[in-house]
């Protein structure tokens, strides 16, 4: 996230945003890498695929979330490629590695500890957004493969540049403009609130998916958290869960945190103190090196 924020805060960000970014697929929560290099038979193979994507110059567009704090007019925005998490599931996952001594029980123990700290544990906020169609990307047929290089130097450098079929991010001079008014406002009170891009899915819609959890019992909280951690699936995407979800291109969140209580967002898995924010999706803002064959195959599936 630091790299993305650094690039997009620059005065020449329309130029720097065209520079492809490479990801080393490491870490427990590297969800973006999982979508760019979806074949993960082994960590070594995953790293090798990311290196080959750079050599072959395979890139694909990635959406970015622009997150603007509202407390200070002079505050700078933060940019993210995955999304925002806020709530008890987020808090428990932050402490997973602390309980390494519990062995295979560490995941379940982390959620039980969070349960013991405070229950019922809910976050409250006023959520504002506009109900409107979101942008849908139409996938074009890929350009025909170039003819094999029969020259003598082709034997020493067999990889052909694929820049001619690279999907370019589209520049929009109005992309960073936040709405001045909202047509929908509702109060939320949930165990977990999330706002995610569609980068880690095969969806063609360029939007933010805003989710809030239903009422959960203690047992449901622990079981869902354990299943989420075991399958590396966000709680809101675990099958059979009845989360409230809405697709928007921008929203405003005004958290209601009791005075003296600490509360934290996770923005691309980095902690940030909870504060009022405005968020907007910037479709296809950056290019990342990826396994183009798999990414295009997923994107070409019907809606």
Can you describe this structure?
The chain has 303 residues and is an alpha+beta fold. It has a single domain (2-299), classed as Tumour Suppressor Smad4, CATH 2.60.200.40. Helix content is 23%, strand content 26%. It has helices at 2-8, 13-16, 31-36, 43-55, 88-94, 106-117, 218-231, 292-299; strands spanning 59-69, 78-80, 83-87, 123-129, 135-136, 184-190, 192-197, 205-206, 208-212, 244-248, 250-255, 264-267, 270-273, 277-289. Helix 5 (88-94) crosses helix 6 (106-117) and helix 6 (106-117) runs antiparallel to helix 7. The radius of gyration is 21 Å and the shape is globular. It starts with a helix and ends with a helix.
Give the ordered list of helices and strands: HHHHEEEHHEEEEEEHEEEEEH
SSE-based structural type: alpha+beta
CATH third-level topology: Tumour Suppressor Smad4
Average pLDDT reading: 80
Overall tally of domains: 1
Net shape: globular
Beta content comes to 25-35%
Arrangement of strands in the largest sheet: 2-1-14-11-4-6
- Straight-line distance between termini: 29 Å
What keyword list fits this structure?
8 helices, single chain, six-stranded antiparallel β-sheet, Tumour Suppressor Smad4, alpha+beta, 303 residues
Can I get a quick summary?
Its EC number is 2.7.1.107, 2.7.1.138, 2.7.1.94. The protein is of the alpha+beta class and 303 residues long.
Question: How does the SSE layout of this entry go?
Answer:
Blueprint: H1 2-8, H2 13-16, H3 31-36, H4 43-55, E1 59-69, E2 78-80, E3 83-87, H5 88-94, H6 106-117, E4 123-129, E5 135-136, E6 184-190, E7 192-197, E8 205-206, E9 208-212, H7 218-231, E10 244-248, E11 250-255, E12 264-267, E13 270-273, E14 277-289, H8 292-299
Antiparallel strand pairs: 1-2, 1-14, 3-7, 3-12, 4-6, 4-11, 5-8, 7-9, 9-10, 11-14, 12-13
Helix pairs in contact: 5-6, 6-7
